Amino acid sequence: MNEPHHDSRFQRWFNRRGWIKITIATPYVWLILFFLLPFAIVLAMSFATRTPTAPPFSFGGDYPLLNTRTYHRLVEDSLYIRAYLTSIFNAVIATLMCLLIGYPMALGLTRVSKSWRNILLMLVILPFWTSFLLRVYAWMGLMGTNSWFNKLITSGYNYLVPAEDALRYIPMMNTNFAVVLVTVYSYLPFMILPLFANLEKLDFTLNEAAMDLGSRPSRVFLDVTLPQSVPGIIAGSMLVFIPASGELIIPSLVGSSSRPMIGRVISDEFASARDWPMASAVAVALLLLLVVPLMVYTYFDGKAHEKIKSSGGADA
Amino acid sequence: MTDIPAITIDADLQSASVKKSAEPSFIRIEGVTKKFGSFTAVNSVTLEIEKGEIFSLLGGSGCGKTTLLRMLAGFEEPTAGRIYIDGQDMTDLPPYERPVNMMFQSYALFPHMTVAKNIAYGLKHERMTAAQRDDRVRNMLDLVQLTDFAARKPHQISGGQRQRVALARALARQPKLLLLDEPLAALDKKLREHTQFELMDIQDKTGTTFIVVTHDQEEAMTLSSRLAVMDKGRIMQIGTATSVYEYPQSRFVAGFIGSINIFDGKVVSIGDTTTRVHVPEFGGDIEARSVEGIEDGAQISLAIRPEKLTISRTNPQSANSIRGIVRDLAYFGKDSLYRVALPSGHIVSVNSVNARRIGENERVADWEDEVWLSFDPNSAILLKD
Question: Is A278:A73 a contact under the CB 8 Å cutoff?
């Protein structure tokens, strides 16, 4: 009985001191300082002119404000377009693989007993306790031509194909395959966790109801579980696809240098070529490529929700 | 007051059970037991239910009624025993192969499907044309009066409407048996009464056998043709609402259904129709209708329902009358509840219908009044345990 009184006093203090405004403002300040401002700088830089100075760009000269050279090159030079395509392709494959592997795992997590669930969840998160770089190096070791892993796979391959096609080893390192494999390995938890959070909330009674109405378990999954897990699938796919498409470390360490990914291109432009305007343009284009579809999705998703709300007046 | 002689009732109940064994029942549950680890949820239950009945499983939470229902639906496998529906052994069939549908307590409507799609869901596994299916859905919507809401999603309709969608969805496949898990529990009181009659009406129209699980004794008594009272995984008594209410066979059933006054006593003498029982609380002997299987001198419980007691200011000069003092009274309009203290200190509840209109201070008895309580020997229930 004392609680509401206590609560309201706390609330009054909270409001009077302007704490509520600070609480709301903090994330916005953060976003402005560390996302919007740097993005504005990068955007401005992409329209600058490259100079042999430090920093290696300037405004003025022949192009006082907007030098669109970088964007012209972006569409004209097939290197960039190929790099974008490789990145998107690798990211799409990695996302699909993560979904195929992660969905059964997430579903399995919701079906086991509470004690097992905690242990298994721990195991999903456990890789984060070691350095990401270290884990990529481990994969490099595994994929190398002399590793037991490569030998195992090679002998399996040789067992299946005729003797004249037998290989001494399978070249895995420095291929797109290696990039996708390590990306899937690295980002799998980002698929499992949102999917698990979504699937865990689903009411199992609905599955029983579908079964009661004549559906076999496989049918129940397609009719009940899958449609209801779409938000989890979207969330997990975003979390995998967006960083995977801009990934730098994995393609640099295990990828093929003849088919660079976009993260590698940005890094090279900044560091090796010292063409900061070009690097910025590549980065801006990548961001637009990733953010615009997301914004469109959010817009239509929000609209759909509004529609439900406005027509949701249940007449009792 | 029931003035029917005891023997006739017993004979009736017996003849009913004899008739049943002549041909096998529509639904037979034979010695079904369900254990979860060391906990026995359902303990060797045997039950026979006829076609077209509304049968209620009544009991408190944890009595095993829901587990029994889930075994009928196929969600739980019995540890022992068999279940037959319409002569077929259902025990090992999965839920999707049983001619049984269930209306879930939470309704379990598919949130991503419209009302019509929800109702049509079970039909896609039936061998029927699209036109037949649409027809069936339309009939079902008609039956539950939701034709105008066919295109709505479950969250866009009210709780009562959701309940009717759940019923229509479960009935759409024309199951041999419909299971209802606390069908009215989520509705408010007014809607519940209305829906109760609607359910009975729909059952009448479709002729489907209903098994209803409920903890609400009033619901069970009005809805069902017969009911089973369950406790700790066992069936305590099976019968019509009247037989369970008026002729309970155990202290548990007597206390669970309605309110009741229970006294300890000792059998003094056994007559043809009545038995004399010494009840220390009353400070004397009373007469009660005889029951089978009691012995002279045995300890026994005497139970009497509050409405079977007559309250008066003067000594009624009849066999079973006791003196007491009114400690409390509650006026409900159509009836009043008196709480009368016996000389021994024991408090007895008495329910008295206010059949005549009375003015202020014209009541039969008032606070601290000395009154006489009396009852018909036929109304007194003797319980062996």
Answer: yes
CA distance B143 to B146: 8
Residue to mutate among A212, A226, A309, with most B CBs inside 10 A, is A212
Identify which of B128, B84, B130, B76 has the alpha carbon closest to the alpha carbon of residue B102: B76
Nearest to A312 among B100, B155, B170 (CB): B155
Interface A–B counts its CB contacts (< 8 A) at 74
* CB-CB contact of B251 with B385 (8 Å): yes
Confidence category of residue A167, pLDDT binned at 50, 70, 90:
confident
Look at residue A18 and tell me whether its pLDDT is greater than 90.
no
- pLDDT tens-digit series, residues B219-240: 899 889 999 999 999 999 999 9
Report the pLDDT value the prediction gives residue B305, as an integer from 0 to 100: 93
pLDDT at residue A159 greater than cutoff 60: yes
Average pLDDT, chain B: 88
Domains, chain A, in order of start with CATH, read 16-76+262-290 (no CATH), 88-259 (1.10.3720.10)
Cβ–Cβ gap A211/B96 under 8 Å: yes
pLDDT digits (tens, 9 = 90+) for B70-84: 999 999 999 999 999
Q: What is the DSSP letter of B174?
A: -
Among partner residues B73, B102, B110, which is closest to A224 by beta-carbon distance?
B110
pLDDT of the residue at B125: 85
Nearest chain B Cα distance for residue A175, angstroms:
43
C-alpha B154/C-alpha B169 separation (Å) is: 12
Are the CB atoms for A56 and A284 separated by under 8 Å?
A: no
Q: What is the ipTM of this complex?
A: 0.82
Chain B residues with CB under 8 Å of a chain A CB are 73-75, 94-96, 100-102, 104, 106, 108-112, 121-122, 124-126, 153, 155-161, 169-170, 173
Q: Distance from A238 to chain B by nearest Cα, in Å?
A: 23
- Give me the residue from A216, A228, A316 closest to B96, CB to CB: A216
Identify the residue among A203, A206, A213 best suited for mutation to test binding to B, counting B beta carbons within 10 A and taking the highest. A213
Query: What six digits make up the tokens of A216?
Result: 């076999």
**Location of each CATH 3.40.50.300 domain in chain B:** 6-99+175-252
Tell me if chain B has a CB within 8 Å of the CB of A210.
yes
**A312/B258: higher pLDDT:** B258
CATH domain B259-383 topology: OB fold (Dihydrolipoamide Acetyltransferase, E2P) (2.40.50)
In whole angstroms, what is the distance from residue B83 CA to residue B46 CA?
A: 9
Rounded to 5°, angle at Cα A93 from A92 and A94: 90
User: Judging by beta carbons within 10 Å of its beta carbon (0-12, 13-18, 19+), is residue B371 exposed, middle or buried?
Assistant: buried
Q: CATH number of the domain at B6-99+175-252, please?
A: 3.40.50.300
- For B12-28, the pLDDT digits (tens) are 444 444 444 557 889 99
Query: Under an 8 A CB cutoff, do B156 and A223 touch?
Result: no
Question: pLDDT tens across A208-225, in order?
Answer: 999 999 999 999 999 999
Does position A1 have pLDDT exceeding 80, yes or no? no
Comparison of pLDDT for B56 and B296, the residue scoring more: B56
